[in-house]
Design brief:
2 strands; phosphoprotein; AF4/FMR2 C-terminal homology domain-containing protein
Length: about 375
């Protein structure tokens, strides 16, 4: 019987787990947290819970973590808590070292407009431009008013572009572009959008308007370039002949080698005006008046004025382009993303490329200002 009791005790010992010391880290304790640690390796709040938590609470907390995934990210990988909605990728024009110029954007990219390649008539674009202009007229907010005027100006540019394609149009595209320039300048006079006190959004609008003006002035020059070349040749020929005749003719200030009076400072200037005066005095019978004015043929005066008006478009184009460059430095992230969404503007861009670029920028400004 004692032998039987010993054998049954040995069987019971085999069935029972070994006794553990209270000070030892036993395998069962390790196994208890294996499941919770394996579930929490993805990096949730359960990763910071102690291993003494029961398996039911661990599974429920990990279940809650999976349900709330996307709202709270792990601090196990980075060592800090990160909001995934505010986290932006380092690429695609975003700067992770500092906040963007606008706080309203939480999406990785701003929405991109899609444009149709369908070509419409000049009248179609004219009606669209008038609709946008009337919409701007009805607004009270100056910023929203200027944005809609600028958008209407883009449709006027489309209208002028259609006139260039159809030579049978009654109105000149040069005139259309010139009137569009006046509309944009009027929109910019509603408020000083380029001043130091202007908001970031207002400066962005000023950049877009200055880009428009720059390329419009340049396009206006190209439309009249042939006229400018002809005027330049005629004027240079006139100045050359005037210089020759002024050397051959006697000086109006000397008679028989004696000085009649003190010459005007204007008569000593080597400017084209003095050449014209010399030519007019020698060739056409004109003479300097007491106020220093000279007489030139009316044809030459008209030609010189037209030449100045045409070539001045180049100076204005570069002036507005440089102004846009200066103002864009305050919103580099915005315009870098705009360049990636559309082809970057250059002074060789077409009118179609200009319209799409500016319209995309205006759409983003409307979204930022909640104007849609």
């Amino acid at each position: 019987s004692s032998l039987n009791r010993k054998q049954s005790r040995r069987r019971d010992d085999k069935l029972l787990p070994p006794l553990l010391s209270p000070l030892s880290d036993g395998p069962p304790r390790k196994r208890m947290c294996d499941s919770s640690s394996s579930l929490s390796q993805e990096g949730g709040a359960a990763a910071m819970l102690p291993c003494s938590t029961s398996s039911s609470s661990s599974s429920s907390s990990s279940h809650r973590h999976r349900r709330g995934e996307g709202k709270t990210s792990s601090n196990a990988r980075n060592g800090s808590e990160v909001d995934t909605h505010n986290e932006k990728p380092s690429g695609d024009g975003y700067h992770t070292n500092g906040p963007p110029d606008s706080e309203v954007w939480s999406e990785p990219r701003r929405p991109k407009l899609s444009f149709s390649d369908t070509v419409h008539s000049a009248d179609y674009y004219m009606q669209e431009a008038k609709r946008l202009k009337h919409k701007a007229d009805a607004l009270m907010d100056k910023f929203g008013k200027a944005v809609n005027y600028a958008d209407g100006a883009l449709s006027f540019i489309d209208c002028g572009n259609a006139m260039e394609r159809d030579p049978l149009e009654a109105k000149s595209p040069y005139t259309m572009y010139s009137e569009t320039v006046e509309l944009i300048r009027y929109a910019m006079r509603l408020k000083n959008f380029a001043s130091h006190s202007a908001t970031v959004a207002e400066k962005k609008l000023a950049v877009l308007c200055n880009r428009c003006l720059s390329l419009l002035y340049l396009r206006m020059f190209h439309l009249k370039k042939d006229h400018a070349v002809k005027y330049s040749r005629s004027l240079m020929e006139y100045f050359k002949n005037s210089a020759k005749s002024s050397h051959q003719a006697p000086s109006p200030w000397r008679t028989n080698g004696k000085v009649n009076g003190t010459p005007s400072p204007l008569s000593l200037s080597p400017s084209p005006a003095s050449s014209i005066g010399g030519g007019a005095g020698g060739g056409s019978g004109g003479a300097p008046g007491s106020s220093g004015s000279v007489a030139i043929p009316q044809r030459i005066h008209h030609m010189a004025a037209s030449h100045v008006n045409i070539t001045n478009n180049i100076l204005r184009s570069y002036e507005h382009w440089e102004t846009a460059d200066r103002l864009a430095s305050d919103s580099q992230e915005f315009f870098q993303e705009l360049d990636s969404a559309r082809e970057p503007l250059s002074q060789q861009s077409s009118m179609t490329e200009l319209v799409r670029y500016i319209r995309q920028g205006l759409h983003w400004l409307r979204l930022e200002a909640h104007l849609l």
